[in-house]
Amino acid sequence: MHSESLLHWEQKSVDHAKAYKKLLAKADRRKLLPRLPELHEEAFQHADCLSCANCCRNYSPRFKTPDIKRISCALRMREGVFIETYLRIDEDGDYVVKSTPCPFLGSDNHCAIYEDRPSDCRRFPYTDEDVLFKRTAITLKNASFCPAVYWVLERLCASEGI
Questions:
Q1: Could you tell me the CA-to-CA distances from 94 to 88, 133, 135 in Å, in that order?
Q2: Averaged pLDDT, groups of 10, the chain, 162 residues long
Q3: What pLDDT shows up at residue 7?
Q4: What is the structure's pLDDT at 80?
Q5: 51 with 128, same domain?
Q6: Residue 134 counted as domain residue
Q7: Angle (deg, nearest 10), helices 147-160 and 136-145
Q8: CA atoms of 59 and 55, how far apart (whole Å)
Q9: pLDDT at 67
């Protein structure tokens, strides 16, 4: 991370979790939703995914059918072989990677399937869409390991006086 604002963000995120929960519970979504794209862009002026990769190291996206088709095609594998090699079904019935870190994460934090990555990876960390407010548990979890989510929630809390 290359911003003073993100100094010790991990501990600050833990310390501010109750404030984030309060914000997400009481937020006027109609008012805050239009601000998300700008805050999202701003967050990535300060957070560098390639120096972090916490999401790829610790969690798995869902691999939906179109993702599996696209990725297995790009890897020139049959879908069944791709699934058998890399995926398992989680407690929610979704396909996720068998192990962490993600098998497609390189030692340089680059993704080997970046152009064909799952939709969840393309959308992560959801700081520019209504998922931020609709899926509170996911947002709070993401704030614990993603500096961009921390950045956006901090800015929203500040603007709301929380």
A1: 8, 22, 17
A2: 69 95 93 96 94 94 98 98 98 96 97 97 96 94 96 95 92
A3: 81
A4: 98
A5: yes
A6: yes
A7: 120
A8: 5
A9: 98
pTM of the shown model:
0.89
**Is 132 in the same domain as 52?**
yes
Burial 31-43 (b: 16+ CB within 10 A, else e): ebeeebeebbebb
Q: How far is CA 11 from CA 8, 16, 17, 133, 147, in A?
A: 6, 9, 10, 22, 11
Task: Say what the pLDDT of residue 1 is.
Answer: 38
Verify that 97 and 17 share a domain, yes or no: no
Within a domain: residue 2? no
Tell me what pLDDT residue 4 has: 54
C-alpha angle 22-26-31 in degrees, rounded to nearest 5? 125
Q: How many domains does the chain have?
A: 2
